[in-house]
Design brief:
single chain; 414 residues; alpha+beta; 4-stranded antiparallel beta sheet; two-stranded antiparallel ribbon; 13 helices; disordered N terminus
């Protein structure tokens, strides 16, 4: 074997890797993209965290300066979509499956431009998405872990704009400007102000003719005419059956508080509105138990929209039936009905006889009188109160409910 057969081969030396946290600018002032995935993490990146405005400005600057050969208008569209969904911490969910459809590009194109943003130092990984199922085993569902990106800006952008940065890496902070950066910031602020003024529409200006004041004598001010003075607002007058003194109003509230938990269809109404609607009924001398019994037998929807309005309407109907109704046939101009003739009566009798033969009438069961129904309702309410007072601590849902049961037992007579 020849001596030089095992001699080491002198290959071209690899370019030295830049230490983490330093500028990625080469000796000829050219930006070096972040190719290594290990440097695209929050803990290893040389870029600092940022928010929506600086992220978009840094992305526009990096693309216009052609720092990456594959960056273009589509890269800027992807950056704008990510910026629109940034949260307060500067993080955004990747949402690849919906993002490429929303932008109208292919999935592979989206992945390529996301990689370009990472290499430009504008995106870093906060959370790596995985396909591990996060749903319980046996549920038949699948949901993986989402990829979370953090918006950052490279140190090259801060140096180009004259930013003074404190610290290094993701948690570095922008603390001021250099002399050159201050001039650039002032120029940019003036340009934004001019562009915002240029976007104003003519409708924002008040160039409409205004009426001039009428001059009287030598004075340059006039008093308003008497007809133009605002009239004082009239106070709302409460109808007569609903008027009450402060003590009567407080008593009505206590009655409504006793009735509302015992009458289901009144539980959706406010306590004061219900007390106001019950004032005429309370004025007639009815007790809270009598009112609860009467309200329980009313035929109303299970959950009316306004129980107080229904109670007030029923009171109006009750007071209206007490007054004698006028006979419509007494007036001279009002026509009266014509009585049926003999042929119509005979035809109606034949129809009734036929219906009676087909379905003989069934005698209805006698309806119990009202006082029997009221006694049954009062008995059920009393039974409910006794059952509530005899509950044990295990049957109560909260400690406050158990204390209320104990207080009721102490107040109950022997």
């Amino acid at each position: 074997m020849m001596q030089h057969a095992r001699a080491p081969v002198h290959a071209a030396a690899a370019p030295p890797r830049l230490p983490r946290g330093q500028h990625r600018i080469s000796t000829n002032s050219r930006y070096i993209p972040v190719r290594d995935h290990a440097d695209q993490e929050i803990g290893t990146t040389a870029s600092r965290r940022t928010r929506r405005g600086d992220f978009l400005r840094a992305a526009t600057w990096a693309i216009t300066q052609r720092l990456h050969p594959k960056a273009g208008n589509t890269t800027l569209r992807v950056a704008r979509d990510l910026a629109a969904r940034l949260n307060a911490d500067g993080h955004v969910a990747y949402c690849r499956d919906t993002m490429w459809r929303r932008l109208g590009i292919s999935r592979r194109t989206l992945e390529r431009h996301i990689a370009v943003l990472r290499e430009l130092g504008l995106l870093v990984w906060a959370v790596h998405g995985t396909r591990t199922n996060t749903r319980p085993a046996g549920s038949g569902e699948w949901a993986g872990t989402a990829t979370i990106y953090a918006a950052v800006v490279p140190r090259a952008w801060d140096d180009a704009l004259g930013h003074r940065v404190s610290g290094h890496g993701y948690h570095a902070r922008h603390v001021g400007f250099t002399d050159h950066g201050r001039q650039l910031a002032i120029t940019e602020a003036r340009r934004r102000t001019r562009s915002s003024r240029r976007r104003d529409t003519p409708s924002c200006k008040t160039n409409h003719p205004r009426p001039t004041a009428e001059m009287r004598g030598k004075k340059n001010n006039t008093s308003a005419p008497h007809g133009a003075r605002p009239r004082p607002r009239r106070r709302h007058v409460v109808p007569e059956p609903y008027r009450a003194s402060p003590s009567q109003a407080a008593h009505a509230v206590s009655v409504a508080a006793w009735i509302r938990p015992r009458v289901p269809w009144t539980q959706g109404e406010g306590l004061r509105r219900l007390a106001f609607a019950l004032r005429p009924w309370i004025a007639t001398g009815l007790s809270a138990a009598d009112l609860a019994a009467d309200l329980s037998v009313w035929r109303v929807p299970r959950r009316p929209a306004s129980p107080a309005s229904m109670i007030m309407a029923r009171w109006s109907e009750t007071t209206g039936h007490d007054e004698p109704a006028a006979d419509p046939c007494r007036g001279e101009d009002t026509p009266c009905g014509v009585p049926p003739n003999a042929a119509f009566r005979e035809a109606m009798d034949a129809v009734r006889a036929r219906l009676t033969r087909l379905s003989p009438p069934v005698e209805p069961e006698p309806e119990p009188p009202g006082f029997v129904i009221r006694d049954r309702i009062l008995a059920s309410l009393a039974e409910a109160d006794r059952a509530r007072r005899t509950r044990t601590a295990e049957q109560c849902l909260t400690f406050a409910e158990w204390e209320a049961v104990c207080d009721a037992r102490e107040r109950a007579p022997w």
